[in-house]
Amino acid sequence: MYWSNCFIPTLRENPAGADTPSHQLLLRAGMVRPFAPGIYTYLPLAQRSLLKIRARIREEMEQAGAQEFYLPALHLTGTLKRLGQKEESHNSAGFSFAASSQQIFDQIAGNELRSYKQLPQVWYQIRPDFRDDSQPASGPLRLRQFTLLEAYSFDVDLSGLNRSFQLMREIFERIFSRCGLELIIAEASLPEIGALEANRFMVINNAGEETIAQCDSCSYTADLGKATSRLPAIEDEDWSEAPVEFPTPGVRTIEALTIFPGGAPAERQIKTLVYLLDGQMVLALVRGDHQLNETKLAASTGAKEILPAQPDVIKQALGAYPGSLGAVGVTRFPIIADHALKGRKNMTTGANRDDFHLRGVSLERDIKVRQWADLRTISEGEGCPACDGRLNLAGAVEIARISKLGQSVLSVLDREGKGTSVAVGNYVIVIEQILVCIVEGHYDRDGIIWPLAVAPFSVIITPVNYKEDALGEAADEIYRKLTESNIEVLLDDRDERPGVKFKDADLIGVPLRITIGSKKLQQGKVELTVRSTKESQDIDLDSVIDVAREKLKSVFVK
Ligand SMILES: [Zn+2]
Q1: What spacing in Å lies between the alpha carbon of 339 and ligand 1's midpoint?
Q2: How far apart are the CA of 182 and the centre of ligand 1, in A?
């Protein structure tokens, strides 16, 4: 491409409000423009890189035998609702715009896969997706619209699923490594009841909306919806008497009760939270100094919708407002309690009477716990569950997720001719997050440094003055030869000062620059500069194609 034909609206200054390197650089390099919070327009230069990322994904998926589909986005209204999936909008003809591919893949698999001989299969599609996000978006690290690779594996049994899962994990690692990303694979909460294992591919980044826990001495890594920790044991004094109610006027928080005369330290209190899980009221209990994790609550109950109950609803159900709630004597609603409360005695909790609490509460004796589960969010510095080390927390961006969904309702005939349940895996990549995270990891003060595998162009030719006949002709000639060698080239033919052209070339981050100036050209030479190292060398005009090709190979192994 000739720059004068391209739309690359670079900016000199950092735009206001852009506070991450990726946000600043993608705007300045003329690659993205904001449309609405969390929604971006990807301009032609960015689209070239996004198509490269898709190409790398398709190459690796193909290599592993995965096959791409093109599925309908219109579904009969109602079918998705019955499956508990979201419907984006619908029209008068009775069709809805659907986000997920799962229903159609399941339908095809259910109709067409009949025998173990047809398995395994890995099917995928690349499609737009949306996220219902009420949080204010902060730059392109947090997206409301994006492109998703969505893949499913179908195997005849769980050992087959284990193999497919491992294979997809390796494919994803190869894709990200070719894109120049350093990833961390974290254990993740399970996407649904019956699922067996899930991993998330994360990039450490303080601006990311996710948090992961990493052990400082072993390889333990998990997201906050999954991470557990070792807690120091607490010795409770023996307490045989029944709970005693006592007045606590105005005390509405754990903190307030710690300083109230006759109160209790936070780790000797029970925090009672009331939720509506798919419409059913549930009491969730954690230790006073612990935070409830809603992802864990969802994972341990299988609930799809989790809503904190409103104070008036709680008052009607339990007889008190939040601040005076407890689970002693409650039998009408299921009670789920965190493991850290197991065996605790002589605890303090709300009495379900405003301005009153109970002391002397023993969990097993006084509260009808229906389910014990891991419900708490871990904190920085707590003990690793796998070794003697400590857990550190770090911000992260999620790029991909893989899950063993386990046995499905699909069935095929096995070797003996009997029906057997098909084991299914699910694998997703958010494509724009790859682009953004590459920029977060590959830049300097002058701009982006694209890894070759995803660079919008491989080479930029910069004649210091394109209008000068000899320089323009040499530039055109090199452009023609590189293009014939299947190398993607951008020729900066703009009528701009050399300094502006160099700055723009560095900003948009093309891996190799060939600079053509009068003095060197008279000696039959041009200058070759590597963007990542800024190293320059003079090369003979005759050998420019060979040298460029070698340089691209040797400097950018991936
Ligand atoms: Zn550890």
Answers
A1: 20
A2: 21
